[in-house]
Amino acid sequence: MRDWMKREPVVIVAGRGAVLRDEKGKEYLDANASIWTNLHGHGHPVINAAIKRQLGKIAHSSALGLASEPASLLAEKLVRLADSPRRPKLRRVFFGDDGSTAMEAALKMAYEFARRTGRSRRPKFLSLQSAYHGDTVGAVSLGHIGLFHGAYHGLLFKTDSVMAPYCYRCPFNRARPERADARQYRQCQWECTDLVERKLRAQKRKGNPYAAFVFEPLIQGAAGMVPQPAGWLRRAADIARGHGALLIADEVMTGFGRTGPMFACQQERVAPDLMAVAKGMTGGYLPMGATLTSKAVFGAFLGEYDEFKTFFHGHSFTANQLGAAAALASLRLLESAACARARRRLREALGGALQTLWDLPNVGDIRQVGLMAGVELVRNWKTREPFALAERAGIRVCEAMAKRGVLTRPVGNVIVLIPPYCATPAQARRMVAALREGVDEVCV
Fold first, then answer.
1. What CATH code would you report for 53-334?
2. Which pLDDT score is estimated for 180?
3. What is the pLDDT of residues 149-191, one digit of tens each?
4. What is the pLDDT of residue 187?
5. What is the mean pLDDT of the chain?
6. Other CB atoms within 10 A of residue 49 CB
7. How do the domains of the chain map onto residue ranges?
8. pLDDT at 87 (0 to 100)
9. What is the Cα–Cα distance from 353 to 423, expressed in whole angstroms?
10. Do 78 and 292 meet the contact criterion of CB atoms below 8 Å apart?
11. How far apart are alpha carbons 258 and 54 in whole angstroms?
């Protein structure tokens, strides 16, 4: 905080496409899509028009016991897009304010489902090491990043964690750090999924099986843009379901095309029982989240009035009409053939540009899943020795990038690049070039 207060912040006053402009007229590329939220660019005419049309009707009215046209249409659209060939299918939608509240709703639903179906009187949850699911108390309880969550230990309820795959730093498989393709997993014996099996089995023996297994599919963002090897998610999900645990997918970051398909779970044909979405849902325009769930979970909250089975949880701005209108417009754009082509071109351009960084001695690993990338900086690429966080290596590289007109934020020593889908291949290459120059400037 003192570092932040020592200098004048960049004050953003305008944006168009992938470009932001500050109060002094300087332009920057938005290289992290405004903290992973913006899909189609700033000031998109289709989303602007949709919001203006809705403003001409109503901006917001309560969804407590009421309904609205845009929110109803959005719920129907989300259910269709989340459809899976494997059961159970997601058929019910609960709207919230953001990703954290979407995860809170999922957590409460799973908790009550376990109690009401007789699975557990004291429901317990299993999530991944280095997990991040939001900053509200329930979401923090599911998280396991000491730097973010340790200060609030006394506020939290206990959840268990299990090793998450981190192939670059895998304790079982010493992959060569300069290799970024599937060859680095050649010697993998899936020890990390064996640990998931053991954890679930041990808890079941105690007579209190886990109510749910919670995961970020395909890639863990706040952990350092750490991808899961192909097949890990499907294996882990099958193990958890085999032990009777519900599957809670946190698609807040990975949803809406970031990893390739509409939702990351679809890439490995995993059908969760609950799924949280937010961030890109409105195209980065307005805060809105949603929790999707199955008919079975929904059914646990059905009853006569005097049974008081209702889901006692809600938000003042639930199902906000402006947010729903923006989301519907964003999803129409996302489903278009033009958007699919643009994402494919951008993914290829970003991946090609990133490969040029392998010769830098302080680049230990380059990780890309769809249109999300992380470049891990190290003191020595041969030993994978990290920089100490106090050295601020990631922060200093991002500051050097900002001087070159590219804005992003690091996750520790990992430089994150998540461009809006409207970014051109040339803009992607410029983002990577600024990163390279920033590393050259800082890591000497």
1. 3.40.640.10
2. 47
3. 999 999 999 999 999 999 999 888 656 555 444 444 456 778 8
4. 62
5. 94
6. 12
7. 2-30+337-442, 53-334
8. 67
9. 14
10. yes
11. 27
Cβ–Cβ < 8 Å for 217, 258: no
- Give yes or no for a cis peptide into 361 (omega within 30° of 0): no
- The CATH T-level fold of domain 2-30+337-442 is Aspartate Aminotransferase, domain 1 (3.90.1150)
User: Considering the entire predicted model, what is its pTM?
Assistant: 0.95
Number of neighbours of residue 42 by Cβ within 10 angstroms: 24
> DSSP assignment of 288-342, as one string?
-EEEEEEHHHHHTT---GGG--S-----TTTT-HHHHHHHHHHHHHHTSHHHHHH
| C-alpha radius of gyration, the chain, whole number | 22
Question: How many separate helices (H) and strands (E) can be counted in the chain?
Answer: 15, 18
- Per-residue burial over 229-253, b = 16 or more CB atoms within 10 Å of its CB, e = otherwise: beebbbbbbebbbebebbbbbbbbb
Least Cα distance to 35 among 407, 431, 437, 425 occurs for 407
The size of the chain, in residues, is 444
The answer on pLDDT for 253 being more than 80 is yes
Instruction: Tell me the two tokens of residue 263.
Output: 């939702």
Q: For 204-252, what is each residue's pLDDT tens digit?
A: 999 999 999 999 999 999 999 999 999 999 999 999 999 999 999 999 9
CB within 8 Å of 412: residues ≥ 6 apart: 224, 389, 394
* pLDDT confidence of residue 170: 87
Q: Which two three-digit tokens encode residue 330?
A: 């964003």
CA-based nearest residue to 224, from 159, 129, 150: 129
Q: Are strands 372-380 and 414-417 parallel, antiparallel or unpaired?
A: antiparallel
Residue 287 token pair: 């805060």
Structure tokens at 372: 């999300």
Residue 86: band (very low, low, confident or very high) from pLDDT cuts 50, 70, 90 = low
> Which tokens go with 176?
């060569």
